[in-house]
Amino acid sequence: MYLEEYQAGTYERQTDYSAFIPSHINKQWEWRTPEINVLLEQANLELGRLGSYSELVPNIDLYIRMHLKVEANKSNRIEGTQTTIEEELMPIRDLDPEKRDDAREVQNYIRALQHGVDRIIRDDFPLSSRLIREIHNELMQGVRGEHKTPGEYRTSQNWIGGSMPSNASYVPPSHLHIPELITDMEKFIHNDEIYVPLLIRIAMIHYQFESIHPFLDGNGRAGRIMIPLFLLDSGLLKKPCFYISDYFEIHRTEYYDALNRVRLNQDMIGWIIFFLKASVATAKSARVKFGNAVMLVDEYNRLVPQISGSTENVQAIFDAFYDNPIQNANVLSESNSISKQTVSRILAAMHEKGILEEITGYSRNRVYTMRKYLDVFRI
């Protein structure tokens, strides 16, 4: 079947609204649009370069964790959170109360994505309906929406926009259709008897998941987490180093419009072209960020011997900032089993050399940021 002839689905009339039922996607798909061939080639080339680079760089897992935190910030900003990456890296107790809910949602996103990565890499567990529900359960713990059946597909109607289904901008299928639609999507993820390139598959899977909207809340975040997990599960990447939400957040209107045009105008080609362009840009950007991180860390490592104290303690403090570039002496002391006096002395020396910036202006309980390192991933 050709993607140019894709039929997005049908509408099912309810009492005072119509719910959209997306068509099944577990089929052999082809296309006549040459632009897809060129973009697919570019995207695979850039992903290959990123994958090779990620397997060669020392300490890449450290940089990936930082990359993941920025992904969490961007994905949640698409959903309307207002906290900055700096605020999300600080302990929640140190934030203004009105920002704590947003920060918790971001931290849950990090945990949910890491849970999925661990299940696939450590447990050899496939991307599946069960894993999607596990991820959703992690996303919704202790945050807004925690009472909307975390980890369970909905058993009632939901909608997007408006105050009720009758004035909503989009009404997904009735919950009665969810088991069948999720089963079809899951089969498409793992179907070895069809010949659909992996990036085309995940583009269609992301659209399909967002159209099914199987949870009462958190569908956008869960759907974006599925993208890097699919690349890991399929073997296209060996490391979890591809996070596309930055591109989606920058092009938020185009992102939503491309998804909506599939449902409204049968334009699956347009959505896939957008997704492939996003994939090319994301893979290039990630490789540049990792390269810049390596160069900056090499520069800082040359400064380690110039800071008084045992090399082991100094290096531990540097490594802590590479994992989370906003820290204070109390946390560093506790997490590294180094006396607070020693930690404070190391922090002062790093500050004097311009490695760290102090961001509170206080004389006590100071908080430091390794801003140049943070900017590598944020920009």
Write the layout of secondary structure elements.
Elements: E1 9-13, E2 18-22, H1 34-56, H2 60-78, H3 85-89, H4 100-121, H5 129-139, H6 178-190, H7 198-212, H8 219-233, H9 245-250, H10 252-265, H11 268-301, H12 311-323, E3 326-328, H13 329-336, H14 340-352, E4 357-358, E5 367-369, H15 371-378
Helix pairs in contact: 1-11, 2-4, 4-5, 4-8, 5-8, 6-7, 7-8, 7-11, 10-11, 11-15, 13-14
Organism: Acetobacterium fimetarium
Pfam families: Fic, Fic_N
InterPro entries: Fic/DOC_N (IPR025758), Fido (IPR003812), Fido-like_dom_sf (IPR036597), Fido_containing (IPR040198), SoFic-like (IPR026287)
Task: Give a concise summary.
This protein has 379 residues and is mainly alpha-helical. It is 58% helix and 5% strand. The mean pLDDT is 95.
Give structural attributes.
379 residues; 2 domains; Fido-like_dom_sf; Fido; mainly alpha; single chain; 15 helices; Fic-like fold; SoFic-like; Fic family protein
How is this structure best described in words?
- InterPro entries: Fic/DOC_N (IPR025758), Fido (IPR003812), Fido-like_dom_sf (IPR036597), Fido_containing (IPR040198), SoFic-like (IPR026287).
- It holds the Pfam family Fic.
- This protein has 379 residues and is mainly alpha-helical.
- It folds into two domains: 3-285, Orthogonal Bundle (Fic-like fold); 302-378, Arc Repressor Mutant, subunit A, CATH 1.10.10.10.
- The chain has helices at residues 34-56, 60-78, 85-89, 100-121, 129-139, 178-190, 198-212, 219-233, 245-250, 252-265, 268-301, 311-323, 329-336, 340-352, 371-378; strands at 9-13, 18-22, 326-328, 357-358, 367-369.
- The chain has a three-stranded antiparallel beta sheet. Strands 1-2 form a two-stranded antiparallel sheet.
- A hairpin with a 4-residue loop joins strand 1 (9-13) and strand 2 (18-22).
- It starts with 8 loop residues before the first strand and ends with a helix.
- 40% of the residues are buried.
